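Review session, final week

We close the course with one last complete record, chosen because it touches almost every idea we covered. It is TRAP transporter small permease protein, a protein from Natronospirillum operosum with 184 residues. Go through it on your own first, then we will talk.
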Amino acid sequence: MRKSLDLLYTGAGFLAGLFVMAIVVLIMAQIIGRWFGILVPSTEDFSGWFLGASSFLALAYTLRTGGHIRVNILIRNLRGKTRYWQEIAVLVLGLALACFMTYWLIHMVWESYVFNERSRGYISVDIWMVQVPVAVGAVIFNIAMLDELVHTIRTGKPSYHGQDDEMEELEELLQEGPAEAGER
């Protein structure tokens, strides 16, 4: 199960990277096209859709690798049971918010499909088609949040704590100064 979930998160992260690369290709095509008087239609539309897809598909991978920005100033000094319950509370709240967001994203895709919404750019596209990767990314993020919550309940420590420990060591080294750090 662990390998399957990690593969899911990594696959979503890989797709997010592909969408970012597609944005680069589109923008470069538009820039080069302008040099030669060639119009690359709907570049802004597709770039925006690809940005949404890449952002949401990257959420789960970023959570599992500890890449999300965390405000550690409040929790830095918490230890033991207090820190454990704080992590559980944050994960439960985060999962609830992610579920709320995902429900409405799926609803948005469904409405776009039912009402047959189309884009108004040079290239007309069914809106639901470009919204699907956003909703899929949100669903995968929900799975990752639930996975993280279960992991934290079982082990007592979130998987992203390794990154917190590394940052604390770096902060200690920076506070010691170069002379004391060299003595280590």
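Two points worth writing down before the exam:
Residues 2-168 form one domain.
The radius of gyration is 21 Å.
Good luck, everyone.
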